[in-house]
Design goal:
Number of strands: 8
Structural class: alpha+beta
Distance between the termini: 56 Å
Number of helices: 2
Order of helices and strands: EHEEEEEEEH
Amino acid sequence: MTDLHLADNELLPNLHQWLPLLGESLAAQGRFRWQLRGASMTPTLPPGCEIEIIPPPARIPLGALVVFAAGDTLVVHRLVHRAPPFLVTQGDHRREPDRWLRPGQVLGVVTAAYRDGERIWPRAWEAATRWRWIGRADGLWLLRRLRKAMT
C-alpha cells in the first residue's frame, strides 16, 4: 500500500482540483495519511501529528473523527450529533459546531494518529472519551439555546 502524504497542507490552495484524486486514492488504496495542522482537535489530536484516514462507513458512529472539505481546506472534527439528513460536527477545542453536513460531504474517517512514528490515538480509553466530547457538545448547545431564550 502506498500512502498519500499531504504534509503541511501543501495541496490545499487547489483543494477543489485534487479532491477527486483524494477520493480515487481512498478507493484504490483504502487509506491515506495526512499531516494535521491547526489546534481545533486538541487535546485529542495535537497539531503536526499524522492522521490515517479511511473511506467513511455507510453509517458513521457518533464520536468518530470525520474528514470533510470546508472552503479551501480539509477539516477533521468529531461527529457529535445527527439531525437527519444532516451530520453535526465540532472540533474538540471549539465551542460552536460546524455548519451541518450531508453524509456525502464526509470524505473519510480517522482511524489512527501518529507522532514521530508512534501511534498516539486512539488510546485505550477512547470509547469513553468520545462520549465526553459528545456530552460537551450537547451541553454547549443547550447553553446557547438557554441564552437565546433569555434575550
